[in-house]
Amino acid sequence: MRELKLWLDALAAGATPDFEECLSRLGGFFPWLERFADTPQEPEWHGEGNVAIHTSMVMEALYQLLEGPAQHICGSKRQALILAALLHDIAKPVTTRIKLIRGVERLAATGHEEQGASYLAPRLMALPLDYPVVAMILGLVGFHQVPKLLVVRNQGYSCYLHLALNVDLELMYWLERADMQGRVCADQAEQLDMLAQFALFAQEYGLWQVANPRTQILPAVQVKNTPREQVYLDNYAVAELAGADIVMAEEAIARTYRAASVYGHLYVMCGISGSGKSSWIQKYLADYHLISLDEIRAEVHGDRSCQKDPGRIVHLARDRLKAALAKRRNIVWDATNLRLDYRKVLCDLGRDYGALVTLVVFHLQIPNLKANDRSRRFTVGGDVIDEQVNSLQWPAITEAHRMIIVGDKGRTLARFGSFQTGEPGEQTEEKSSV
After folding, report:
1. How far apart are CA 113 and CA 140, in angstroms?
2. Quick one: pLDDT at residue 431?
3. Within this chain, do residues 36 and 55 fall inside the same structural domain, yes or no?
4. Spatial distance between the Cα atoms of 330 and 325, rounded to a whole number of angstroms
5. Residue that finishes a domain, picked among 195, 225, 255
6. Are 173 and 199 in contact (CB under 8 A)?
7. pTM more than 0.90
8. Domain ranges, residue 231
């Protein structure tokens, strides 16, 4: 592992390994890399050939950019950018299909961005990387098709802010420029022009080379007398701007005026079995109203592991959630919540009732999940954990008002959003709270 760390650290300091070297170093951590050479691409969009050829060209293009217009990108950002270039199409081997597009059969890899981030999330944790680098890679891979779509759809500030809350827009630009230069296609000049427009809009909106977009939004709404009320306003102002519910941060002051003084919290857990959700709840949220699907299964069936009648269990849980939200109670929802659609229902309900919604994401490598599971009273087994890993849909930072990332042994890895002193995960260093 020491040799691997030295190799990874060299990426931050100027190293330029080619695709084959990266494959030899990291193929064991990311087996889908081994399938790149056998994964074809649509000839009209990728005349260069398979995914391995494309990735090799993307990395070469990125190194040229890093020696030229992007030479100011260094350190951890450079490390993340190179690894994102290597891994940006990691899910193409499992998503590439023949699809009918405008009446023509094409090879397409629909959803490879999101699936790629979900595949990488637990596996990146096995590498000796600082967590901010892991987060950057996941953002770059998971959203790398968005920049051109923003331009094509003529989207405005809210969509650029939404993206900027999830990933550094400048890093995304350089990745996508390398992605476009690392291919053979008839419309390359047009595609590069769209990326240039993306960069111009990001600069115009004040979101270029900005580490934390919240810092530019929040000064306009610092009007509350108590930290509790201010935290509520801060988080709602950012979320409503990114969701296009308002066009100026100041609008959130009136929209949240009453709720800011009477709101309850909703904490939604998101983590594979064995990740430490229950222990974390006991440590930080022991006095919260707990809604646990396992406990409801035990109540209904006499067995927390019984999977019969799942619709009834979820219906009961949601009814209890609505009742507690209506009373503005502080609530924690304890379940794996690995799928986006499950999380969205909960987060939307919380927002509808005026709660401050925090998503707590447990981010561990697979061997640690299995080891933790074996030491638990209620074990699910390695096969179930493998199934959960395969079903994971990695969450975006913007799914809830706030996000806390928790690693092994309950250690806080990052916090996103505004927090009061004394709130969960405060042992995180300030630089990780954005």
Report:
1. 9
2. 36
3. yes
4. 8
5. 255
6. yes
7. yes
8. 214-243+251-255
Do 78 and 185 sit in the same domain of this protein?
yes
Residue 55 has pLDDT above 90, yes or no: yes
Residue type at 159?
Answer: C
Regarding whether 275 and 181 lie in a shared domain, the answer is: no
Radius of gyration of the chain from its Cα atoms, rounded to whole angstroms: 22
149 contact partners, CB below 8 Å, separation of at least 6: 155
Beta strands in 57-187 (DSSP E): 97-101, 104-108
Which residues have a Cβ under 8 Å from the Cβ of 83 and sit 6 or more positions away? 11, 133, 137
Q: What is the pLDDT of residues 412-424, one digit of tens each?
A: 999 999 999 999 9
Q: By the 8 A CB rule, do 36 and 55 touch?
A: yes
Could you give the number of structural domains in the chain?
3
Q: What is the pLDDT of residues 73-84, one digit of tens each?
A: 999 999 999 999
List the structure tokens of 341.
């659609």
**Residues 200 and 218 both lie in one domain:** no
Q: What are the strands, taking DSSP E only, across 293-428? A: 331-334, 356-362, 402-406, 412-416
* CATH code: domain of residue 424: 3.40.50.300
Q: Which of the residue ranges 192-196, 368-372, 429-433 would you say has the lowest mean pLDDT? A: 429-433
Strand segments (E) across 35-109: 97-101, 104-108
Task: Report the alpha-carbon angle 379-288-317, nearest 5.
Answer: 65
Instruction: Kindly state whether residues 413 and 340 are assigned to the same domain.
Output: yes
